[in-house]
Amino acid sequence: MTVTLPTPDQLRAIADQCGLSLTDDDVGSFRGLMQGSIDAYNAIASMPDEIPAVKYPRTPGYRPGPDENPRNAWYYKSSVKGASSGKLKGKTVALKDNIMLAGVPMMNGSSTLEGYVPDFDATIVTRMLDAGAEIMGKVHCEHFCLSGGSHTNSTGAVHNPHKMGYSAGGSSSGSGVVVALGEVDMAIGGDQGGSIRMPSSFCGTYGMKPTWGLVPYTGIMPIEVYVDHTGPMTATVEDNALLLEVIAGDDGYDPRIKSPKVQDYTKALTGDIKGLKIGVVKEGFEQATAEAAVNESVREAVKRLKDLGAVVEEVSIPMHLAGPAIWTPIGTEGLTATMMWGDGYGLSRGDLYSTSLMEAHRGWRRQADSLSETTKLFLMIGTYINNNFGPRYYGKALNISRRLTAAYDKALASYDLLLMPTTPMKATKLPAPGAPREEVIARALEMISNTAPFDITHHPAMSLPCGMVDGLPVGLMLIGKHFDEMTIYRAAHAFEQAGDWKKM
Predict the structure, then answer these.
(1) Which domain, by its residues, includes 17?
(2) Tens digits of residue pLDDT in 167-205
(3) Each residue of 343-393: pLDDT tens digit?
(4) Distant-in-sequence, close-in-space partners of 44: CB < 8 Å, separation ≥ 6
(5) Do 350 and 442 fall into the same domain?
(6) In terms of CB atoms within 10 Å, which end of the chain has fewer, N or C?
């Protein structure tokens, strides 16, 4: 696409937007001065982009019909086979549909992106294929990943694997479903407010949000750089640890990476937690949406951990209850500036930009009425705040988030892990067709209060199933020190080995 010099009328309109008053002579002068910069833009346009090579053959696959996809979990089924050997040889993996798989369609839950086909693989995709995995295709997520329910995807709701008509959680809804049903061994989710852990809680899977800066986000459609996480969702703790071993570590692109040491996480699976100190966070059980039966199920799981030899004590972290409020300006203004007005990426980051995605996603402006209700709400709030107040509340919230981090770190100085319910409730009923906007949005946001704080403090946090209530899973969340996923896996594995969670 050629960049042209603005016409005099276009330049006057731009000047008005910038609060500038230009005479006709000014317009002519500035147009002349702009020509060199315009030439530079066209020089960039003529150069080849920096696109990683696609290593493994694949076909676009196909979109399964209702008979093959009764819970609407799959977007596209495909088969991309990796190396002939490796840690993941024999393992099948599904990708959340915000992850780029070259040659296979991606819509990130939104009809405004329908028809987009990525031109390179996400870093974690290449790593899984190099390790011998077989990618089975793309699974549905929420509309631009902006819901903790499973009802905002443009193609319709994703249903819980244990009970039709109930939420599978979000935004990695399809990932939770296909793992819980045994259709794949592993899946990848994304987590900005709890979107790995919430569907794991609702579906009964193991979902790890790694420490921010451990797993590269390259080739995954961003929401906001400060809260973007990606990680494994699996049916067993061993598979979860194994998958994290493969996908973690610096890729030379992602500016989030904090030079972490990637560990052999599977070596933590000893089954022994004698002496491990676990702080049960009082405030995690005091959320406004808490269900007594869910709290009781988690407390029974705490007793099991104690029986396994862990030292378990209650701890109070009052600031935990402020976490969602602190998250709100960061998440809302960040996604508005980056994902929406910034065409998916925004500026000022040393990332590998997918320019093809940016071009395709820009089209939402012509179809804004088809955005989900949650996307419309966040977009309007973020735009209103920026128009009237600028980014100061984003900055202040990020500053305050350091105090929240310090509050958790203070507790973690005394305990190896923290513990609380993943979601305050079990899966809720999906909103009926034509449900009021207020109900649609309530079902999308009511479950994030325990998960969202750790997206802004960046602690690793894992959901593991710990029981059933009314035929639906309950999730327990373990939180560790930064880059100490090993201890989380150690405790999760011991708990898993102690008995069938469905019978607890």
Answers:
(1) 8-46
(2) 999 999 999 999 999 999 999 999 999 999 999 999 999
(3) 999 998 899 999 999 999 999 999 999 999 999 999 999 999 999 999 999
(4) none
(5) yes
(6) N
Q: What are phi and psi of 337, to 5 degrees?
A: -75, -40
Are 95 and 180 in the same domain? yes
How many residues would you count in the chain? 504
What are the backbone dihedrals phi and psi of residue 76, each rounded to the nearest 5 degrees, phi first? Answer: -130, 135
Q: What is the rounded CA–CA span in Å between residue 279 and residue 265? A: 22
Number of domains in the chain: 2
Note if 410 is an active site residue: no
Residues 26 and 138 both lie in one domain: no
Q: Which amino acid is at 187?
A: A
How many angstroms separate the CA atoms of 360 and 460, rounded? 33
Angle subtended at Cα 415 by Cα 413 and Cα 420, rounded to the nearest 5 degrees: 120
- Asked if 481 is an active-site residue, the reply is no
Is residue 69 assigned to a domain?
no
Strand partners, 451: none
Q: Which of 422, 92, 135, 100 is nearest to 234 (CA)?
A: 92
Check the CA dihedral 298-299-302-303 and report its sign. Answer: negative
The full DSSP string for 106-150 is --TT-GGGTT---SS--HHHHHHHHTT-EEEEEE---GGG--SSS
Which candidate in 147, 195, 201, 354 is catalytic? 195
Q: Do both 87 and 218 map to the same domain?
A: yes
Give the active site residue among 77, 78, 91, 96.
Answer: 96
* pTM flag (> 0.85): yes
**Set 171, 172, 401, 463: catalytic member:** 171
Residues 6+ apart with CB under 8 A from 270: 490, 493, 494
